[in-house]
Every structure is written in C-alpha cells, then in structure tokens.
Inverse folding.
C-alpha cells in the first residue's frame, strides 16, 4: 500500500490518480488531519506492507528501518513529487513490496540513497 503524508499537495495526488498509481493519504483516507510525526510510525505498523512517501527529511534515519514498512523521503520540489513517486515505483530495485520493505530511502533528482534493515550501510543509485 502506498501511503502519502499529508504534506503532498492536491495537484500531485491528482496526477498519481491519473496515472492509476494507488495510494491512501494521511488526513484523508487514513487517520486524522494534523497527525504528529511520532504517531506516523505506529500507524504504519497497523497497515499491510506500507510504503510511506513524505517530504519530511526527519524520516531519512537509519534507526527507522523496520521490516514492516518502507519510508521514502522525497527530496524534490513540491511540483515534482508525483513524477518521482512514479519513477521510484518503476525502478528495478524497488518495484515490489518485498524489495522496499525494511528500507529508509531518499529520492532526489540525481538518484536514490537508501538504508536496508539487513545491511545497515547507505547505498546510492543514480537514475538511468
């Protein structure tokens, strides 16, 4: 399940819908508006295989690696969010839930950086 933080704007959500990328957003389909950051991780642990997309850099922390979810920090401009979500979900290393779970990821214009729970070292990949 793709979960969007409430800091993802309407226009980007609509673009994802147009591309038929399924998601649920905090404050709309999941939980309440104004949920605090410390409440997000327990929420994700209640969901089935969530990949959480946010523009909040606080989630890019190796200590947050957990086999029950994937955290993706979108380090891009607000008007680029949907395009980078689609690009990330199509990347050969991150196409499936199994490939993503247990990872904390930074998506940026030059590529992807990530930690995996089992490796505990940061890996960088440039976009093709």
């Amino acid at each position: 399940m793709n979960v969007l933080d409430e800091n993802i704007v309407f226009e980007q959500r609509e673009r994802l819908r147009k591309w038929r990328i399924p998601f649920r957003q905090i404050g709309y389909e999941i939980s309440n508006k104004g949920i605090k950051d410390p409440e997000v991780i327990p929420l994700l642990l209640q969901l089935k295989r969530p990949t959480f997309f946010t523009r909040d850099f606080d989630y890019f922390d190796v200590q947050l690696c957990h086999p029950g979810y994937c955290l993706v920090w979108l380090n891009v401009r607000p008007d680029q969010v949907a395009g980078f979500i689609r690009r990330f979900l199509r990347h050969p290393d991150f196409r499936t839930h199994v490939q993503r779970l247990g990872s904390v990821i930074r998506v940026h214009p030059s590529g992807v950086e990530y930690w995996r729970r089992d490796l505990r070292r940061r890996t960088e990949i440039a976009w093709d």
Remarks:
- The beta strands are 2-4, 24-25, 51-54, 70-74, 103-108, 111-116, 123-126.
- Residues 37-46 form the longest helix (10 residues).
